[in-house]
Amino acid sequence: MSESSSLIIRGQNGDDWESLYALLSLNEVALNTSELPYVSEDAFRDRFASPPANTHVLIAETGLPSGRKRIVGAAWLEVQARPRRRHVARLTLIAHPDMAGSQEEASLLKATLDLGEGWLGLRRIETLVFAEDTRALALVQAHGFVVEATLRRYAIRAGRLADGCLLARLAHRQGEGGQHEQEA
Amino acid sequence: MSKKRSAPRPDITIRGVEADDWEDIAAIQAAPEVIYGTLQVPYKSRDAIRERTENQPPDMHGLVAVVDEQVVGLLGLHVGTGRRAHVASLGMMVHADFHGRGVGSALMAAAIDLAENWLAISRIELEVFPDNTPAVALYEKFGFEREGTLREYAFRDGQYVDSYLMARLRPDGETAP
């Protein structure tokens, strides 16, 4: 757990999936993921309430003046199942529009990277961001992610086939200056 | 420049994978060259291969190449869902004794026909190791373009190695599914 002002970052519990459902029902949030709208609560709960063992979930919540808590963001690290890819995880991060671009969002990302690299020993964390989602691109690039590929016609976004950028952060290459090196 | 073959092109039949193909598939997967060029692991349980062949995941279309009643090549086309329903990811392997003999090309032609003419796929994507020159050449021959290099993508023979991400877009232009 880490705390910054009133922000708490913690693991996923019990009813959190209901708040995640509300978050992903926001058009601006779903737009930049691969999620669909109008998903039934039952179907959503089946997918999100009990993540599989290889999927690590971080929840970001803030405190309201009343003392109640509000989930403002979440991150998923899906460690790849194939045996020769176990050093890799796929990152997905969502944030309430109020939190987008904020220090809180950056804190959630930092906590996720710490979990992945500091505790799970991952060498590679990859993420897929729509090419038009310049804000998310800026966020992850500010945290060591490098664009490796542009996937043409990646997925449907706002009624059109949209390109996606695949970015990755390599744990063993942080602290190097500038561009990544080619593998020998 | 045409590809020099190591032997005349055999008579190749392409059909859908069947449960009974599992033994031939296990033989393909056991070869060190095939393990090296894919994400297979050695010492794989034959029971696991049998089970996997018999229980193909949903949205997976399996094609095999048959020569003289033996399955010598296998290709899987995994179709996406929801906002990615127009996308298929492709993986293939050819028996080590049959490399360079047209089996890969036969499988690719069939897979592209299936995907683009019947499944309304407008993007086929795959990963391939950069030093797998014949495979890269095969994919380029079928209109796949390199979209990028994924660093430390997989573990192979004691090292973390990069992979190309390649994709083919259906040539009729952008269409929503």
Question: What labels would you give this structure?
Answer:
heterodimer; A: 184 residues; alpha+beta; Aminopeptidase; 8-stranded mixed beta sheet; 5 helices; 26% helix; B: 177 residues
Any overview of this molecule?
The complex is a heterodimer of chains A (184) and B (177). Chain A has a single domain, classed as 3-Layer(aba) Sandwich (Aminopeptidase). Helices cover 26% and strands 36% of the residues of chain A. Chain A is built from 5 helices and 8 strands, in the order ββαααβββαβαββ. Chain A has an 8-stranded mixed β-sheet, sandwiched between helices. In chain A, α4 (103-119) links the parallel β5 and β6 (124-130). Chain A is globular. With 177 residues, chain B is α+β, with helices and mostly antiparallel strands. Chain B has 5 helices and 7 strands. Chain B has a 7-stranded mixed β-sheet, sandwiched between helices. Chain B starts with 12 loop residues before the first strand and ends in an 8-residue tail after the last strand. Classes of the chains: A alpha+beta (184), B alpha+beta (177). At the A-B interface, β7 and β8 of A face β6 and β7 of B.
